[in-house]
Amino acid sequence: MTLSIAKLMLCETAGVTYALLIDAIERIVQPTDKQLQIFDDRKVLSWQTETAKHLIPIKQLSELVHYTRTPQNQAEFNENQQLGNKPILLVRRQKELLGLEVDKVLGEQELVIRPLGSAITPPNYIYGCSILKDSRLTLVVDAAALIKETLEDQNYLTQTNDYPSYAEVELLPPEEEVDESAQLLSQTLLIIDDSSSLRKTISLSLQKISNQVLQAENGFKGLEKLHQAESIKAIVCDLEMPQMNGFQFLQAIKNHPQFSQIPVVMLTTRDSDKHRKQAMDLGASAYLTKPYQEGELLSTITGLIKD
Prior knowledge:
Blueprint (H helix, E strand, L loop, with lengths): L3 E10 L2 E6 L3 E5 L6 E4 L2 E7 L4 E8 H4 L6 H10 L7 E6 L2 E6 L2 E10 L12 E6 L5 E5 L1 H10 L1 H7 L5 H4 L18 E5 L3 H11 L5 E5 L2 H10 L3 E6 L8 H9 L9 E5 L4 H9 L4 E4 L4 H13 L1
Parallel strand pairs: 2-11, 6-8, 12-13, 12-14, 14-15, 15-16
Antiparallel strand pairs: 1-2, 1-9, 3-7, 4-5, 5-6, 7-8, 10-11
């Protein structure tokens, strides 16, 4: 039996938890009502980049992964359904982008991936299985392979071939937006998170208010960035990281005269009052939870820098 260890993105959809390989995940989006549109009677995500607007087709992960819910799964799903827009994972395969809609993003975990064995023949997009910390078994999904199978499915192509392609939509001019945060383009920001995919996602968000966004994989590397950069104006920091976690990082900079006044926004999956209080007691300026609302994150940082 061949085992491997990898960082996986845990998501919940229709009462089932899946672990996705993170390599193909470009970004996690918590869409606004304005970003969700209907094109030819199908849901798309209107996505604005620096140069253009894109329309990205959205599919529910639960519709693509053929998994039968148990009665317990179904009961929990019905009980825990929440109103509002759901998180979307932007997944890339070559030049194609597809949005996978899930009910919850549970965050990254490093897990052992085990083969399913020869008793069954799983779909190509099932990479194996893992045992979660609560002893539940979850399927590991190769998101890129899932996208490939979805796009190659003749029925799906027939249904969605009227979507503008990614390249075609790039011809649309970007929308003009007037934002007070444009005044902050000269400010340097720092992201500290051990997840490379989340660092990239957060960086793309912060680039809307800053033309220089630095990244570090843990608190220790974050301190190195602070010493190397001249004028970091705000920091977005995860809580659980190797070598130096978010609490330890807060303690380190608050005891340093040069860095003690830099506002730190904690951005974590930990939403308990205990963790929030501890972070604020250690000097955090704000405490936000993942998956984050981009507007809330940007307005929080903007307000802290102006203060």
